[in-house]
């Protein structure tokens, strides 16, 4: 009926969620509104990032001597606050749990209407901000189970299959938003002239195999033998290439589109690795599985892991099926 161009430009994430739900029922409306708020958070963060070097006290480039640590913190704190502001008085989310906050943040005026909890990493890969490289935000939505009267968020300590929606925003040359409701993975690009995310690719599938392995080889001598053996294997075989940016969202996004494997395994001193289960590895595992890829600790699917604390870490091996299986084979059958 309408012009093809208009049809395309109307395919925003909130509209897409309604189509995915195949209904205009209350749950569909809630999830659609939630997606549009997440998109707004992404736009607010993208805008701030794009001006970061110009604004005093954001990066500290302009006449601020005490740059590094503080500057990074400021953007982290800002991005964390963006998600809170966007969901306050929304009636949608009763709690937010973030990598940046020790305890969940409760929004009493949204309770008990908002049955959803948003878990997020507001700025992932923060060391990249100082040098104007890509960073991301990761999000995950769960339904509140039970009353949580003591406000401990104990019901969040469940496996990753309880996520009803997950995804990330990548602040790169373009800002992209990737999400899944458990019905495939969909990719949107921010059109700055419209200020809207517009559908770019539906039902994204990770290739069965890809050339990239993405890991911090600086940890080589801290790794277990099995991981070292895997990396020696790729060094000795043709067809592999290393890519590592220091920002998980960007490294993962490359693998989503082109295949390969990202790994942040544990080290001898820190067997759980660095990345957090609820805010980082479980949401990306959800996306990977929905795109026909896999995400593993080395011995079991990330999505089956049940945390015992909100900020628990987990190792992750994620990406193309064949490549994840190869890493697992080194872990499960040490040579
Ligand atoms: P952050 O959330 O504090 O930024 O930490 C997570 C980041 C990931 O984006 C990235 O994959 C990893 O830490 C890089 O860590 P390392 O410098 O140890 O390789
Ligand atoms: Mg992070």
Account of the protein in words:
Helix content is 33%, strand content 21%. The protein is globular. The longest helix is centred in the N-terminal third of the chain and has 25 residues. β5 and β6 form a beta hairpin. The protein has 335 residues and is an alpha+beta fold. About 4% of the residues have low confidence. It binds 2,5-anhydro-1,6-di-O-phosphono-D-mannitol (AHM) and magnesium ion. Magnesium ion binds next to β3.
Short description:
Its cofactor is Mg(2+). The chain is an alpha+beta fold and 335 residues long. It contains eight helices and 13 strands.
* Spatial extent as radius of gyration: 20 Å
Cofactors and ligands: 2,5-anhydro-1,6-di-O-phosphono-D-mannitol, magnesium ion
Q: Uncertain segments of ≥5 residues (pLDDT<50)?
A: 60-72
Helix content range of the residues, please? 25-40%
Instruction: Report the major sheet.
Output: 8 strands, mixed
Number of strands: 13
Question: How do the SSEs run, as a string of H and E?
Answer: HHHHEEEEEEEEEHEHEHEEH
Beta-strand percentage range: 15-25%
Q: What is the count of helical runs?
A: 8
Strand-pairing-aware structural class: alpha+beta
Strand order of the largest sheet: 2-1-3-4-5-6-7-8
Give the overall pLDDT as a whole number: 92
Distance between the termini: 62 Å
Shape: globular
Organism: Gloeomargarita lithophora Alchichica-D10
Protein name: Fructose-1,6-bisphosphatase class 1
Enzyme class: hydrolase
Pathway: Carbohydrate biosynthesis; Calvin cycle
């Amino acid at each position: 009926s309408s012009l093809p161009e208009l049809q395309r430009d109307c395919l925003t994430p909130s509209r897409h969620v309604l189509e995915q739900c195949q209904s205009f029922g209350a749950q569909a409306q809630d999830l659609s509104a939630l997606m549009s708020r997440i998109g707004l958070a992404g736009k607010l963060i993208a805008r701030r990032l794009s001006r970061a070097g110009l604004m005093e006290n954001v990066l500290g480039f302009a006449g601020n001597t005490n740059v590094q640590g503080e500057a990074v913190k400021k953007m982290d704190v800002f991005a964390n606050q963006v998600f809170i502001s966007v969901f306050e008085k929304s009636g949608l989310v009763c709690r937010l749990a973030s990598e940046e906050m020790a305890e969940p943040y409760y929004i009493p005026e949204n309770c008990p209407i908002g049955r959803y909890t948003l878990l997020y990493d507001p700025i992932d890969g923060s060391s990249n901000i100082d040098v104007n490289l890509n960073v991301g935000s990761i999000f995950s939505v769960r339904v509140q189970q039970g009353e949580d009267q003591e406000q401990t968020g104990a019901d969040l300590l469940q496996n990753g299959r309880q996520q009803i929606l997950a995804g990330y925003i990548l602040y790169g040359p373009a800002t992209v938003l990737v999400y899944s409701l458990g019905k495939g993975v969909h990719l949107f690009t921010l059109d700055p002239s419209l200020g809207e995310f517009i559908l770019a690719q539906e039902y994204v599938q990770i290739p069965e195999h890809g050339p990239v392995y993405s890991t911090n080889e600086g940890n080589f001598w801290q790794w277990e033998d099995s991981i070292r053996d895997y990396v020696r294997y790729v060094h000795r075989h043709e067809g592999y290439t290393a890519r590592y940016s220091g920002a998980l969202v960007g490294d993962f996004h490359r693998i989503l589109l082109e295949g390969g494997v990202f790994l942040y395994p544990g080290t001898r001193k820190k067997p759980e690795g660095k990345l957090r289960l609820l805010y980082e590895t479980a949401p990306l595992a959800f996306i990977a599985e929905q795109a026909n890829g896999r995400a593993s600790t080395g011995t079991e699917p990330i999505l089956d892991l049940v945390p015992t604390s909100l900020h628990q870490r987990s190792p992750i091996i994620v990406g193309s099926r064949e490549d994840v299986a190869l890493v697992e084979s080194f872990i499960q059958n040490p040579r």
